[in-house]
Design goal:
Strand order of the largest sheet: 1-2
Shape: globular
Order of helices and strands: EEHHHHHHHHHHHHH
Number of strands: 2
Structural class: mainly alpha
Number of helices: 13
Length: about 260
């Protein structure tokens, strides 16, 4: 891509900013200055045409996008549309645009949803270096289901995930492996608060479901539920609830780690 020169002029600032697809380090070094300029509602950047704004947006750290979208109604509208997200996908994951839609209960969704799924697959779910968009969508699906006021039984959620991967051509063994990785990733990325404590306590108290492979739940997942309860969220327990939960853990795992006992 040829270099484009964007000249930003204000009373105290004259910045020649070169933008190219291979110039990420330069963009990151100027990020702090750029964000301050971009959040100036009367600044020169606000007067740039939309196609240049999109090229600038997608080169800034994702953590800045929320702040940038609040600068003006126009910019908020751009992030609500498809163009920014489609361009970001094409830049970060060029091959993603070649993938066909898939069958099953978990849809692909909008360009914004696809960007979130690809980002999750790359950064939150370990998949041996491969970027699997379906893994990201499944992560988002499970996380949203667990955040609902009335949580569906975990066996239903687990079965839905398994069916989704099998419908897309994964073997039963691979579907079981991916489902376990997604459960672990979602649990590991939950905030440490009362809502998470109640969710994990609910999952720990659910009865065992004797289902055939690959629908059987992984012991790694149940172990992580108890581990997070007894380490990260231990202070949320009352004395009675703690001993009840510990008894449930001991009935499933022997021996239990000393950290679960408060040592």
């Amino acid at each position: 891509m040829p270099l484009k020169l964007v000249t930003l002029i204000s009373k105290k600032t004259f910045v020649n900013l070169y933008i190219s697809a291979n110039n990420q380090d330069f963009i990151c070094n100027l990020c702090s200055l750029f964000v301050s300029l971009m959040t100036d509602r009367n600044g020169p950047i606000c007067r740039l045409p939309e196609h240049l704004l999109v090229e600038i947006f997608i080169r800034l750290p994702i953590c800045e996008w929320v702040q940038i979208s609040c600068v003006s109604k126009q910019w908020a509208s751009m992030f609500q549309g498809e163009c920014v997200w489609q361009t970001a996908i094409a830049r970060n994951w060029p091959s993603a645009g070649l993938r066909k839609r898939w069958p099953g209960p978990i849809p692909r969704g909008s360009a914004r949803r696809r960007f979130q799924a690809l980002y999750v697959s790359e950064n939150l779910v370990s998949s041996s270096g491969d970027i699997d968009e379906l893994v990201g969508h499944t992560y988002l699906y499970l996380k949203e289901q667990l955040e609902r006021p009335a949580i569906p039984p975990s066996s239903i959620l687990h079965g839905t995930i398994i069916d989704q991967f099998i419908a897309c051509g994964r073997t039963g063994e691979k579907a079981h492996e991916l489902a376990s990785k997604i459960w672990l990733a979602v649990i590991d990325n939950l905030e440490e608060n009362q809502q998470t404590f109640l969710l994990l306590k609910h999952l720990a108290q659910e009865g065992e479901f004797f289902l055939p492979f690959p629908y059987s739940r992984s012991y790694k997942v149940l172990w992580r539920v108890f581990d997070k309860l007894f380490t990260d969220l231990r202070d949320c327990f009352s004395r009675v609830d703690y001993h009840d939960a510990l008894a449930g853990a001991k009935s499933r795992f022997q021996p239990v780690p000393s950290t679960w006992l408060g040592h």
